[in-house]
Amino acid sequence: MPADKPRFLQNNRDMALSMIPLVLICIVVAAIAGQCSFSPGHPTQGKIPHYDATDALRADAQQLTFPIRLPRTPEGWQSNSGGHDTVNGNDGGEATSVGYITPAGDYVRITQSNASVPALVRFVAGGARGVTGEESVAGHQWSVYAQTGAEPIWTTDMGSVRMLMTGSGTDAEFRQLAAATTGEAPLPSQP
Description:
The chain is α+β, with helices and mostly antiparallel strands. It has helices at about 10-35, 55-65, 115-125, 170-180; strands spanning about 80-85, 95-100, 105-115, 135, 140-145, 155, 160-165. A hairpin with a 4-residue loop joins β6 (about 155) and β7.
C-alpha cells in the first residue's frame, strides 16, 4: 500500500493546510494591486472628487436652449459630480445636473431641464411617482415625491425651466439648495 496517501492527508486538516497557502497568495496579490486596505475601528471618509460646477454650467448655458442657474451654495458645500443628458419621451428634453456633498456628508443633486416635470421625475426615479407633499422655498412652490426606500424628489416649474432635486440630504439641505438655485439669475447664454 505504498500508493496510499499518508494518514495526515486524509481528513479536514489536509483541506485547511491546503487553503492557507492559497489565502496568503490572494492577500499578497491584492496588496500588490492596491485593492485592499485595513482600517481598524471604522471606515474613514475618502477624498471627495472635485467637479467644477461653475465651468460646467457656464458651458451648458452656451449649448442648451433653456436658462441655467449656477447655485450659490452655502459655505462648505462641495460639488463632486455632474453632467448633461437627454430626457427621453414626447415631453422630454435636455437636462444638466450637479451633485453636491454637504458639510454633514450628505449628497444632494439638482437637475435643470426643459423637459416636463413628469418626464423629469420618470427619468430620475426610473418610473412614475405621485406627489406626496408641497414645500415653499424662497417664493417657489416645490412638489415633493416621497417613496419608502427611495430618495425623495423635489420639483418646481419656473416657466422655461424645470428643476428637480434628489439625494440623501435632509429637508433643510434641500431647502438650502432650492434657495441657492432659484435665487440666482440665469447664466448668460449664447449670443
